[in-house]
Amino acid sequence: MKALIAAGGRATRLRPITWTRNKHLIPLGNKPMLWYVIKKITNAGIKEIVINVNPGEVKYMSQAIGDGSEFGAQITYLEQRGGAKGLAHVVANAEEHLKGEPFLFFLGDNIILGSINKFVDRFVNEGLDCMIALSRVKDPHRFGVAEFHPDGTLKRTVEKPKDPPSPFAVTGIYIFDSQFFDAFKNIEPSPRGEYEITDMITWYIRNGKTGHEEITGWWKDTGTPDALIEGNALIMDDMARDEFCVDCKVHEDTELQGLVSIGEGSTVSKDCLIRGPVVIGKNCTITSSYIGPYTAIGDGVTINHTEVEHSIIFDGASIDTTRRIANSLIGTNASLIDYRRSHPKTGHRLIIGDNSIVEL
Fold this sequence. Notes:
The protein is an alpha/beta fold.
């Protein structure tokens, strides 16, 4: 079995962060979001992976993720052709790499707890043609949704219904057999002009043997800033204890509580409190500050006289303010400065990108 990861799209809800980087490379726990998806796939024994990317992004993505050797796998990068026409079209775009055998299709912005091994094993052991993962959600109208017969078997799946037939969302993890590409020729674009993956699943329900597995732990579609921050916290809760290590010299009077990881070349002054889980990258400088739980700090970050908690701080950011920063995304090379250190002191100086959120 091979795997296809969808890692394209423009992620407009995450701008301005995604003006300068692909959403799937946003760090969670100081690793690219895509890293965790690849790890889930390879841990299930799948070693041939195709990553679908936006036009012009092959070099950029391959430099960030590599050729797969880090995971004991082989990764091929494939540009999306024909524009954004839906998830089923993303799969059809990869026909030359996948046709002739079953394949796993995994949306690169989906973060789940635990392994997908049981999911893959059920497809194989039960001789299924299609397998989908479902999750109970509070707002099913935002997703593809499963509809069931009275006996609990699948009836169909429908994309973003105004009146959801169930609370079960179709998550971004699927397995299809080799019929997919012939079946794709039988579906039409939806009213929104896309080839819906839910239409493909409905085809399989009517023409083959389709199974489903509920994700009973957490599943996060990281499509909004709040979801990213929550996903970061969930990832850090799921990290193994041996992943938290201090690889730099920390002043003997620095107070470290709980699970804390600090990278090489970083310095932390004696009047700091770091309360984990916290991940701090390489070559950072933390001075007279409090770093609270569920904070991930990238490489080369400077934090001075500030409290930071439950946030993601990207590489090269500089935070020098007496304020408390919480539930925040601070982008690459961004600067937060105490307004009282500039003149005149009658107002705040702001450079704010599209879709930004600022609390003063």
